[in-house]
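Task card 7
Instruction: Convert sequence to structure tokens.
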Amino acid sequence: MSAGFLPVPLRHWPAEARLLLGMLALWCLLGLLVLGSASWWVAAREMNNASYYLTRQALWLVASWGLLYLGLRVNLRRWLRLAGPALLIGTVLVGLTLVIGSTVNGASRWLVLGPIQLQPTELIKPFLVLQGASLFSHWNRIANEQKLIWLGVFVVTLGLILKQPNLSTAALCGMLLWLMALASGLPLWAMLGTAATGLAVAVTSIALNPYQLIRVTSFLNPWKDAQGDGYQLVQSLLAIGSGGVLGEGYGLSTQKLQYLPIQSTDFIFAVFAEEFGYIGCVVLLLFLLLFAFVGLRIALSCRSNQQRLVAIGCTALLVGQSILNIAVASGAMPTTGLPLPLISYGGNSLLASLLTAGLLLRCSLEGAGLEPVRQRHQRRRDPHPQSAG
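Output:
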């Protein structure tokens, strides 16, 4: 590939960046294969088109790789300047879901704009990472007023997500910011206090929202009400158990036909486990472990704290959300509404995930000093460090 298409020729990329790009392509291909198997029964029955969800996912995937390319081409400093306004707009959109949003299963998480459904809680995740890196990397050099303003924005954003209600996404975003703050070197006492506060908020939310409480209690013993509150988890566990060591074979899952609910999004891992078995699950987990290792290698190669925190946040977001989704499907955590990145059906999740991946690749290129000449000249003309605002 020429430098006209990429910031620098692919052969000059660091080994970590080239490996990460290949893993992303493999991840997306696996996602299409698994989704095609998981969705054809429901698509044929409900849409009279077995490839309905697969075709739409492929179109969203093309647009999402366009966002990855944009993340790769644009200087990270520009992304950091854009993060604040984008996060504020995203917070407003999350607030609008509570007023004019589409409600599904008791949760208002979508804004319907003609044929397009926006899920702001997914789209703001990359900008939450960017703004968190912008704030925490300069924590000791910015005014207290600016710290309070952005901490307040984070609290409002998480509060609105929690109000939808969407405890799982609020918890994921909160843990993501907490991890980035910890990596930036903030005092341990402050981090422990924040963790205790977050835990108290989560417990309060569960106590005040009956459906969340039911999910927690049914998770502890789903077989007690296998045809009611524990139905989703019981069917997921049956699918995973049916896979055995080697799996039933691609496309041969029976649980997806009329038993396993939400098989194309929240519980798509159960379909994967039934068809590819224990061996397939171990390979997938090793894949995520390798992805995390490569992401952390990129973070260690970064030249500035901002780049390092962006790389840590992007890696934690993609791998952490994947682990949480798998934990839910396998009964290690209460049932939540987190998609499996790059595999679950949904355009919003694809857009956010591949933009996040593009930012991670950008961190690798800048960490290795691989930037177009014009961008280096621009950095010399703008020597002042990026502020948190």
